[in-house]
Every structure is written in structure tokens, then in C-alpha cells.
Write a sequence for this structure.
């Protein structure tokens, strides 16, 4: 059963959040300048002041509700999703998947462009029916009872598309965890998934690197990722411990998430708000706080570890689903050489772009939308 859903956060809930932000003990925090030690204190103070004086959750809430929102039961999960129907009479279905520390907020501005390209100078026949779920354990989907890894989530989402929505065939786009899940869907559900578009590659081939170029990339990647292992190891091993602090501290949650948006993005002249607005940053943070989902959302790291980690299983065979690779230069997870990726995916499109980072849908929406439409409508026009 699919039920309509409307987001409506009580004023009392918002007031409690703002009260905690207002009463944060700033005097106990050390000012280390810059972002080297973590989230910059002065910036956190500045955005927190905006949070309690100018930020308008209800405006953002109305933006989400301007789309059709639904909930449906998939296994034991009450899955939230946005559905935007195209006016294209022959439309195909495109599943957009977010990651961590993102949410459905990443896609709100590109949903209309993908569903209704005719409103943005494109053709009505290029439009897709767009489905944007809150991943299990994230946002407005129900909290999960145990950690789920990306492979299991992929199976849940395929069941959602085929059984709940009734689509035999569909396409998938994702970055971060969305890209990982898309890969598993391509491997496990190729009967239904007919095309993949990803802008991140967290997955690894079980047989590793082969040539000199690949090994050089691997060495650099492993060195670069040393500075990223802190949050990842915590969330993959003891996420529950971290959650106690995050549940009770909106400012703490903001600091944890903001540091990733600052460090993983293509910042113009080094300033986070040259790339994202305060409203964009806070709205994404608020979803984690309002839904109390920081804990279960971080469990996906724990779930991946239980499923076996980044690598596909030893008996892995190349994913046959046609795949598009979109490479943005400031992606936190540096892409391997094409020779390596081609042993994982059936690459039909390989594009490198001049700007953009980990949060491509927010950072470079025009580029991402154009690449998605070109791939699924032109490269895969006969599918």
C-alpha cells in the first residue's frame, strides 16, 4: 500500500532545537582558526546565529511538500519517497539515490529539470518519472532496527521499484552511498535495472589493481584517505556511541556534517558559502535532527563492514548494466584509472568535468542534469 505523506514538523519541536542551539556553551570551545582541526569555530558560530535568527524551516518544508510525497512498506521499512511524474507520455523511471551526510535535499532543485526538461529549454520527450527515496534509516523513512549494508538496501530498493511501484525496468543515479547502492543494484538486479549513472566510486574490484598506473593511483588513494578514516571508522565500528552526543546536540550534529561539506566540495576561493547557501546547509542538517535519524543513518557504514567492506565478492563478475561515469575534480574519493573501472562496470560514457566535488547535484546541477539526460536519452535511447 502506498500512502500520501506530508511533512509537518510541530512548532514545539523546532523551538526545542533552536533553544539548544541558542544555549550551546561556546565559551568551552577552543578557537583553532581555519578548518585543519575540524569545523571552524567562527564559522559555526556564524551559521548558528543565522539558524536561530533568520533560518526558516517552514519555507523548506513547503518546498519538499511542493512535490508529491509518499510512504510505503517494503519488508519492515516504512519507506519515504518523492515522486514527480513527467508529462512525457513514454516516460521511463529514474531512481535518484543520496548518500551520507546528504539527504533528499540534494535533489530538490534537479527533480523538476529531470522530470520537466521542457520548462528549462529542453524537450518534453526527454523527461523522466523521478523517484527520490529517503534511504532506509535516513530522514523521513522509518528508523531501522539493525544495520543494513548497501547491498541489502539495493535489494530493498529494487523490490520497492518492482513490487511496490510496479515498474519492471528503471534507471538509477547516485553519488556517495547512492553510487555504491547503484552498483549493487546493477549486480543483483540487472533484470530490472537497465542503466546506471554514478558520480562516485566507493566500490572495489576483488582482484585489486593490475598495471603501474592503477597501482600508482591505489598508493595515492590510500595515502589521501588516511585523513578520512576517523569518521568512517567510528561509524563503521561504534556508531551508537557517537549517536548519544548527536541526538542531544544540534550544534554538534551541524559541526560533524558541515566539516564534510567543507572538505569534500569544490569550494570557490575556499569559502563554503560560495558553493552552498546557509539555507541549503541547514536544511540538510535539520532533516537529521528533526527525524532523529543521525544514528540509524550512520549504521550504513557498520552494515557495509558486516557485508564484507568495499570490495565485491571473490566470485564477482563484471556488471553488465550500461553505466555512465561522471567525474568531478574535487571528489573526495579520487577515481581510479578507466582500465580499473572498466573491470567493474560496462562503461558506455566516461566524462570528466572542470568543476565540482562530492555533492555534484548541489554544486554543479546544470552539468549533472545535462549528463544524466544525455546518457539515458541518447546513449541508451534503444533500451
Amino acid at each position: 500500500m502506498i500512502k500520501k505523506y506530508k511533512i509537518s514538523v510541530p512548532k514545539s519541536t523546532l523551538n526545542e532545537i533552536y533553544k539548544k542551539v541558542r544555549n550551546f556553551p561556546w565559551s568551552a570551545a577552543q578557537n583553532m582558526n581555519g578548518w585543519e582541526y575540524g569545523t571552524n569555530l567562527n564559522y559555526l558560530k556564524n551559521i548558528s546565529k543565522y539558524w536561530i535568527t533568520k533560518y526558516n524551516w517552514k519555507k523548506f518544508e513547503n518546498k519538499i511538500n511542493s512535490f508529491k510525497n509518499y510512504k510505503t512498506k517494503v519488508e519492515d521499512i516504512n519507506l519515504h519517497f518523492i515522486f514527480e511524474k513527467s508529462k512525457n507520455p513514454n516516460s521511463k523511471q529514474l531512481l535518484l539515490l543520496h548518500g551520507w551526510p546528504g539527504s533528499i535535499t540534494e535533489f530538490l532543485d534537479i527533480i523538476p529539470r529531470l522530470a520537466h526538461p521542457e520548462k528549462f529549454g529542453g524537450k518534453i520527450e526527454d523527461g523522466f518519472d523521478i523517484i527520490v527515496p529517503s534511504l532506509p534509516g535516513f530522514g523521513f523513512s522509518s528508523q531501522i532496527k539493525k544495520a543494513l549494508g548497501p547491498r541489502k538496501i539495493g535489494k530493498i530498493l529494487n523490490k520497492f521499484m518492482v513490487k511496490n511501484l510496479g515498474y519492471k525496468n528503471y534507471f538509477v543515479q547516485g553519488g556517495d552511498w547512492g553510487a555504491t547502492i547503484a552498483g549493487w543494484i546493477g549486480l543483483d538486479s540487472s533484470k530490472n535495472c537497465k542503466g546506471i549513472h554514478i558520480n562516485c566510486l566507493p566500490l572495489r574490484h576483488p582482484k585489486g589493481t593490475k598495471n603501474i598506473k592503477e597501482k600508482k593511483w591505489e598508493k595515492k588513494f590510500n595515502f589521501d584517505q588516511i585523513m578520512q578514516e576517523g569518521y568512517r571508522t567510528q561509524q563503521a565500528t561504534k556508531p551508537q556511541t557517537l549517536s548519544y552526543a548527536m541526538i542531544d546536540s544540534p550544534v554538534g550534529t551541524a559541526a560533524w556534517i558541515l566539516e564534510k561539506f567543507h572538505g569534500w566540495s569544490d569550494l570557490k576561493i575556499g569559502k563554503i558559502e560560495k558553493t552552498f547557501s546557509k539555507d541549503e546547509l541547514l536544511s540538510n542538517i535539520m532533516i537529521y535532527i528533526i527525524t532523529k535519524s543521525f544514528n540509524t543513518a550512520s549504521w550504513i557504514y557498520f552494515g557495509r563492514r558486516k557485508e564484507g567492506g568495499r570490495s565485491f565478492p571473490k566470485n564477482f563478475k563484471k556488471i553488465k548494466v550500461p553505466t555512465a561515469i561522471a567525474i568531478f575534480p574535487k571528489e573526495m574519493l579520487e577515481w581510479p584509472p578507466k582500465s580499473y573501472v572498466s573491470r567493474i562496470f560496462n562503461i558506455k560514457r566516461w566524462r570528466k568535468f572542470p568543476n565540482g566535488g562530492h555533492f555534484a547535484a548541489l554544486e554543479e546541477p546544470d552539468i549533472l542534469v545535462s549528463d544524466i539526460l544525455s546518457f539515458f536519452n541518447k546513449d541508451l535511447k534503444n533500451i
User: Anything to note?
Assistant: DSSP finds 15 helices and nine strands in the chain. The mean pLDDT is 96. Residues 2-379 form a domain with the Rossmann fold fold (CATH 3.40.50.1820). The CA atoms of residues 84 and 355 lie 28 Å apart.
